[in-house]
Amino acid sequence: MFVETLEYKRFVEFCEACRRDRYIGLCYGPPGVGKTLSAIHHSRIQKIVPLDRWHAEASDAKPIDTVLLTPEVVNTPARIENDVRQARSLVCSVAKRATRAEQRATLDVLRSRDEAWRVEHRDDRDYRPNYPLPLKPTYYDTLHEYEARLEAIRIRLPLSWSMKQIVWR
Fold this sequence. Notes:
The chain is mostly helical. It is 51% helix and 6% strand. The protein has one domain. Helix 3 packs antiparallel against helix 4. 11% of the residues are buried.
């Protein structure tokens, strides 16, 4: 059980400032005051459930948009860069998975709607299968909308040091 104290609220304010200004935050202090527990609770890293080697999803319906990176005491810049890439990949996978599931469901509904319209109008003399269907929204418009959402997720999580948030221990 985690108690959201005044210090935790200050920590969240610090993290939101890092997110807003796209800075890397350095959180330091004496041991045992709750820096790591606050970071774990704020990042919701315990809610990420690995599905297989490459994909993961959140155990609740809320989006995961914060990276918690705790580097080893002895490391190299290349090691930290690799850890940042892996953390970014995990967050990106979680974010895209929810969008892709929603995309599949929406497109399946549109596909079955379009097919039902085609079956209904198959015997109609004025029916031309090569003309666009008069149904809105169209399948392709919706597909392009979801592809744009997936691209926006990739852009919001750039592969650089200006990630959403990195909390150091």
